[in-house]
Amino acid sequence: MSGIITQTLTLEEFLKLPETKPVSEYINGKIIQKPMPKGRHSRLQGKLCAVVNEVTENQKIAYGFPELRCSFGERSIIPDVAVFLWKRIPFTVDDEVPDNFELTPDWTIEILSPEQKPNKVIGNILHCLKYGSHLGWFYD
Q1: CB 25 within 8 A of CB 77
Q2: What is the CATH number of the domain that holds 97?
Q3: With CB atoms 3.0 to 4.6 Å apart as the test, which of 15, 18, 86, 101 could cross-link to 60 if both were Cys?
Q4: CB atoms within 10 A of CB 21
Q5: pLDDT, tens digit, for every residue of 6-58?
Q6: What is the per-residue pLDDT across 102-116, written as a single tens digit (0 to 9) for each?
Q7: Cα(129)–Cα(58) distance, rounded to whole angstroms?
Q8: Is the pLDDT assigned to residue 1 strictly greater than 50?
Q9: Alpha helices for the chain (secondary structure H)
């Protein structure tokens, strides 16, 4: 089961903390640790990224990132797959992908793990849609 740390922080304070393993998300002022992905979850996540990127990367249409921290709308979440239209990827001056994404993905994909609560995962998808995502997928 994912752990909840009850100490309230601001998003800015949360983003200054070191990363945890498994990763933690910042939702409604609370730090919530995601469960460690297991075999079937990881396999599906990898296949989804591979298919998205096979179809979109060479033509510079979009790119699917696995487990990418996205911070926006007073949340910092880590969708299982975050797909960004190529023109919205905030490349650095050296044409590299940046470490920090402070924007909503265009398409968010969440894969429910047995230890997760569906309402929390669906809540992250709805948050993305509220802040501009065009598509949200929920795999159970």
Answers
A1: yes
A2: 3.90.1570.10
A3: 86
A4: 7
A5: 567 899 999 999 999 999 999 999 999 999 889 999 999 999 999 999 999 99
A6: 999 999 999 998 888
A7: 27
A8: no
A9: 11-16, 39-56, 118-130
